[in-house]
Amino acid sequence: MILKNLLLFLFLCIHLMCFASENSQNIKSRILIVSFIEQEPKILNEFLSFLNHLEKKSLTLDYLFFDNNIIEESRELLKSFSAKQKNSSIISSDKLKYCNNICTLWNANLIFNASEFKDLTIQKALEKNYDYLFLIDSDIMLHPKTLIKLIESKKDLISNIFYNKNTYDFKFLSQICFFSDIYSIYTNENLQTLTKNELEKKANELLNILNKPDIYKAGTIGCCSLISKNALKTKVSFKKKSNLPFLNEPSFFSLNASILGFSFFLDTHYPAFKLSKDSDFVELEEFKKKCNLKKPRITLSMIIQNEANRYLRKVLEKAKEYITNAVIIDDASTDNSAKECLKVLKGIPLHLIVNTKSKFSNEVALRKQQWAETIKTNPEWILILDADELFEDRFIDEVYDLITSKDVDTYAFRLFDFWDENHYRNDQYWQAHLKYFPFLIRYNPKIEYHFKEQALHCGRFPYIVTQMRVKTSDLRIKHFGWAKQEDRLSKYLRYNKLDPEEKYNWKSHESILDKNPNLIKWEEEEIIPK
Hints:
Number of strands: 20
Structural class: alpha/beta
Strand content: 15-25%
Distance between the termini: 36 Å
Helix content: 25-40%
């Protein structure tokens, strides 16, 4: 009996350990990205674009921006980027306005203000229990793999190397001050200023070392740095201590952290690029190629009919955040659906076809037309959504991770049929959310595509897409087509007319009008009922 209980106890322990291990692999590191921004619009636009390209598979990225911009266009760029993020905030302050078009101008008050604000970010990171704080200047363009690589180092204080042209306009230099003190690149051991030739020689010696991707011991923190929760908890600070020499806030931090026993490291695996002036944009294009930043194109393909006063605007506004172009068939709408598409998708290439006679009663003919018009645009990836379907918010952060895969041709997702704004239906006939359906496919012009020849429920894609390399995704789609009583009644009457014997429909028509359906509240981290 004792042996039996012991074996049972061991079995439960092993089971719990396995469960904990599996769940720990699914936990994402939470990072607060902080940037103090007073920047020209064209540089800021590139900076925000590179932030958008950061790989996020194992990360949750939140943003805190200190808006010190004096140019309204820069302010609007920052607001637009922040509005698209799940968790982003902007703090406006005049205390940190220190830039002009030529260089950064410092004085004691600005340095102390910068120290104060950076300590505020430490406080916020601790309050929200972030795993890391990442400080980045707004002229640093990051390689997409930067954050993941820095975290893999398992260092408490680590900076990423970046390259920029210095005032001497010769080879790219890095922030070489990491290796000793801020003046080491300009002086020799006797503290005599180096000549231009001596400076170039010294820089080249260090660059030859840095060309080898590795993690190096450093002397201080930089302006592209990751700070761990472990370091934050020790109350590291950017403030000047009374017994420290007057330098700047990164030096204050480095000296304070050194006193607390921390070492500094520099990662050279994925060098960033410092974009400071117009002449840097030529090199920036080369840097983009190294980062493989060419986005695969996503073509939104959609059929609409009298959708102007329903969900169309909301669906298109969300979609325009990640699509590159759109193909829309307006099937003889009698409202302003077509005009709404033109208005919302302004700035997005749109191929709009307006049918003068509706094909709605013969779905396969309509889907064939949609397909033919879509492939005319030479698409790479085709996303077919209805005008009442919305991906959950995290889709925008993860979609490019999906379509950069070379091993997948079709992505399948779960579709949740909402019965009101906040609840979806789950019962015998309404379980689409337990299955996966193709919504996103890679177009291959060498393949022949054919539809199921049936007037109703022929499928939004040619049936061959389910026979290609298919992968399921945990990203979910909200379907609002049933969310209003009047819509349910309209569809009930339509299906009864087009399919009185329920030949094509997998749902019972009568179930549409069920007065007491089983509804489940939508949760962002929902456990799907079995």
